[in-house]
Amino acid sequence: MRIAILSRSPRLYSTRRLVEAAEARGHEVVVLDTLHCYMNINSLDSSIHYKGEELAPFDAVIPRIGASITFYGTAVLRQFEMMGVYPLNESVAISRSRDKLRSMQLMARKGIGLPVTGFAHSPDDIPDLISMVGGAPLVIKLLEGTQGIGVVLAETRKAAESVIEAFLGLKANIMVQEYIKEAGGADIRCFVVGDRVVAAMKRQAADGEFRSNLHRGGTASVVRITPEERATAVRAARTMGLNVAGVDILRSNHGPVVMEVNSSPGIEGIEQSTGIDVATKIITFIEKNGRSNHTRTRGKG
Q1: 195 band by pLDDT with thresholds 50, 70 and 90
Q2: Residues 221 and 273 sit within 8 Å (Cβ to Cβ)
Q3: Residues 6 or more apart from 125 whose CB is under 8 A from it?
Q4: d(CA 200, CA 109)
Q5: Cα 240 to chain centroid, rounded
Q6: What Cα–Cα distance (Å) separates residue 252 from each residue in 23, 121, 185, 247, 295?
Q7: Which of 122, 243, 276, 291 has the greatest CB tally within 10 Å of its CB?
Q8: What is the rounded distance in angstroms from the CA atom of residue 244 to the CA atom of residue 88?
Q9: Which of 265, 281, 175, 174 is nearest to 213 (CA)?
């Protein structure tokens, strides 16, 4: 197969591993800087150009689209879909998962376990909003934040009111969520490929920190997940429409709750902590499922 990887840099660990895994299985791989792709959009012969030349046809495309370029990245991916190229994750599914509020609403509709979540626009609603999620301590999240940026733990009601007022005063979109104290600053990253969790790791926050992101100094270790956690992760990825996803779960007193579904999960942490060759599992999934025009939305979303 001829496979394109949309990535800002071929030197990134996840990109390198996907190239190695694909080439080891006999595929031709081309890494394309997403922002250097540009499109000819017409009803007769749409195409994608790259650094002055029209790209030759591809069989499949692996999107590694960072949150900061979601709009342009999904537009490029949508162009591939319109041309019949098989996407590992579809543009509509990526956009859906990147909208934190929409993803929460979709998972709630499917009955997937979630932290109690509130969303408001007016500062007049703050006291009731705080009560809605069980009072302080609580977590306040910027909808546009990634990798733990824009996530605040308010330990008292007064602190929560002050932070929410500040965010709303800046016209920022925020969610307010219950704080799962029993999780102890740890979450579980379930790496879903197709309809299976192929690897899972526990991420533990550093001392004095409640965010478990590895970028924030968190540590990763292999973990054994329960059948309920496994089923929750697969259902969450399926609800987003993602073939490959990193589903972050907290262990609460009322069962597993989904914190976030990541459409471009990093491979480094999960491979190094578990010893599982996740990159090859992704490539074999493409081999089994990658067919021309085999896209549910065909670039319509």
Answers
A1: very high
A2: yes
A3: none
A4: 25
A5: 10
A6: 42, 28, 12, 15, 36
A7: 243
A8: 7
A9: 265
Classify domain 96-113+182-276 by CATH number. 3.30.470.20
Q: What is the pLDDT of residue 145?
A: 58
> What confidence tens digit (pLDDT) does each residue in 9-64 have?
999 999 999 999 999 999 999 999 999 999 999 887 889 999 999 999 999 999 99
Q: What's the mean pLDDT in 282-296? A: 84
Q: Does position 294 have pLDDT exceeding 80, yes or no?
A: no
The DSSP code sequence of the chain is -EEEEE-S-TTSHHHHHHHHHHHHTT-EEEEE-GGGEEEE--SS--EEEETTEEPPP-SEEEE---GGGHHHHHHHHHHHHHTTPEESS-HHHHHHHH-HHHHHHHHHHTT-----EE--S-GGGHHHHHHHTTSSSEEEEETT--TTTTEEEE-SHHHHHHHHHHHHHTT--EEEEE--GGGTTEEEEEEEETTEEEEEEEEEPPTT-----GGGT-EEEE-PPPHHHHHHHHHHHHHHT-SEEEEEEEEETTEEEEEEEESS--SHHHHHHH---HHHHHHHHHHHH--TT--SSTT--
Write down the CATH number for the domain with range 2-92+285-289. 3.40.50.20
On the question of pLDDT at 264 being above 70, the answer is: yes
Strand partners, 187: 203
| Contact predicate 185/178, CB 8 Å | no
Sketch the domain layout of the chain as residue ranges.
2-92+285-289, 96-113+182-276, 117-179
In this structure, which CATH number among 3.40.50.720, 3.30.160.270, 3.40.50.300, 3.30.1490.20 belongs to the domain 117-179? Answer: 3.30.1490.20
- Res 293: pLDDT: 65
